Protein backbone atom coordinates (compact mmCIF):
# COMPACT_ATOMS: atom_id res chain seq x y z
CA UNK A 1 0.00 0.00 0.00
CA UNK A 2 1.36 3.39 -0.91
CA UNK A 3 1.59 6.19 1.61
CA UNK A 4 -0.79 8.30 -0.45
CA UNK A 5 -3.78 5.98 -0.71
CA UNK A 6 -5.71 3.23 1.04
CA UNK A 7 -7.15 -0.04 -0.25
CA UNK A 8 -10.38 -1.25 1.34
CA UNK A 9 -12.33 -4.42 0.67
CA UNK A 10 -15.89 -3.86 1.85
CA UNK A 11 -19.23 -5.53 1.39
CA UNK A 12 -22.20 -3.19 1.30
CA UNK A 13 -25.90 -3.63 0.61
CA UNK A 14 -26.85 -3.00 -3.03
CA UNK A 15 -28.92 0.08 -2.17
CA UNK A 16 -25.85 1.93 -0.80
CA UNK A 17 -24.12 3.91 -3.54
CA UNK A 18 -20.34 4.04 -3.89
CA UNK A 19 -20.38 7.81 -3.38
CA UNK A 20 -22.35 7.46 -0.13
CA UNK A 21 -19.94 4.76 1.08
CA UNK A 22 -16.96 7.01 0.33
CA UNK A 23 -18.69 9.87 2.16
CA UNK A 24 -19.30 7.68 5.24
CA UNK A 25 -15.77 6.25 5.31
CA UNK A 26 -14.03 9.59 4.79
CA UNK A 27 -16.29 11.41 7.23
CA UNK A 28 -16.02 8.86 10.01
CA UNK A 29 -12.26 8.38 9.69
CA UNK A 30 -11.60 12.13 9.48
CA UNK A 31 -13.61 12.78 12.60
CA UNK A 32 -11.93 9.93 14.50
CA UNK A 33 -8.41 10.96 13.43
CA UNK A 34 -8.96 14.65 14.24
CA UNK A 35 -10.38 13.78 17.66
CA UNK A 36 -7.61 11.32 18.50
CA UNK A 37 -4.66 13.28 17.09
CA UNK A 38 -5.14 16.92 18.06
CA UNK A 39 -1.99 18.00 16.16
CA UNK A 40 -3.83 17.20 12.92
CA UNK A 41 -6.32 19.97 13.68
CA UNK A 42 -3.54 22.55 13.36
CA UNK A 43 -1.95 20.88 10.34
CA UNK A 44 -5.24 20.60 8.43
CA UNK A 45 -6.96 23.78 9.64
CA UNK A 46 -9.13 24.99 6.75
CA UNK A 47 -8.09 22.01 4.62
CA UNK A 48 -9.43 18.53 3.97
CA UNK A 49 -7.89 15.43 5.51
CA UNK A 50 -8.92 13.32 2.51
CA UNK A 51 -8.68 14.17 -1.16
CA UNK A 52 -11.95 14.74 -3.01
CA UNK A 53 -11.72 11.74 -5.30
CA UNK A 54 -11.99 7.99 -4.86
CA UNK A 55 -11.94 4.87 -7.00
CA UNK A 56 -14.44 2.05 -6.67
CA UNK A 57 -14.58 -1.28 -8.48
CA UNK A 58 -17.02 -4.14 -8.07
CA UNK A 59 -15.87 -7.74 -7.88
CA UNK A 60 -18.52 -9.78 -9.62
CA UNK A 61 -16.30 -12.51 -11.11
CA UNK A 62 -13.49 -12.50 -8.55
CA UNK A 63 -13.57 -13.95 -5.04
CA UNK A 64 -12.98 -11.88 -1.93
CA UNK A 65 -9.91 -14.01 -1.19
CA UNK A 66 -8.29 -13.03 -4.52
CA UNK A 67 -8.92 -9.35 -3.83
CA UNK A 68 -7.62 -9.60 -0.25
CA UNK A 69 -4.43 -11.25 -1.53
CA UNK A 70 -4.01 -8.45 -4.10
CA UNK A 71 -4.29 -5.86 -1.31
CA UNK A 72 -1.74 -7.73 0.85
CA UNK A 73 0.69 -7.81 -2.08
CA UNK A 74 0.30 -4.04 -2.55
CA UNK A 75 1.59 -3.57 0.97
CA UNK A 76 4.66 -5.69 0.19
CA UNK A 77 5.32 -3.82 -3.06
CA UNK A 78 5.07 -0.46 -1.29
CA UNK A 79 7.63 -1.59 1.27
CA UNK A 80 10.06 -2.34 -1.56
CA UNK A 81 9.45 1.06 -3.13
CA UNK A 82 9.65 2.95 0.16
CA UNK A 83 13.30 3.80 -0.43
CA UNK A 84 13.15 6.63 -2.92
CA UNK A 85 15.31 9.61 -3.67
CA UNK A 86 14.45 13.08 -4.87
CA UNK A 87 16.88 14.68 -7.27
CA UNK A 88 16.83 17.99 -9.08
CA UNK A 89 16.60 17.94 -12.84
Offer a quick outline of the entry.
This protein has 89 residues and is mainly α. It contains 3 helices and no strands. The mean pLDDT is 80.
Secondary structure topology:
Layout: H1 18-36, H2 39-43, H3 64-81
Please give a structural write-up.
With about 90 residues, the protein is mostly helical. It has 3 helices and no strands. It has helices at about 20-35, 40-45, 65-80. It starts with 17 loop residues before the first helix and ends in an 8-residue tail after the last helix.
Label this structure with key terms.
single chain; 89 residues; mainly alpha; 3 helices
Percentage of residues assigned to helices: 40-55%
Largest sheet: none
Oligomer: single chain
Can you count the helices? 3
Strand content: under 5%
Distance between the termini: 28 Å
Rounded to the nearest angstrom, the radius of gyration is 16 Å
Unreliable segments (pLDDT under 50, ≥5 consecutive)? none
- Mean pLDDT equals 80
Give the overall form.
Answer: globular
Total E-strand runs? 0
Amino acid sequence: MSKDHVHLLVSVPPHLSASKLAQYVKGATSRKLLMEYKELNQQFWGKHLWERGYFVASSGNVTDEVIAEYIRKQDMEAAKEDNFEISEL
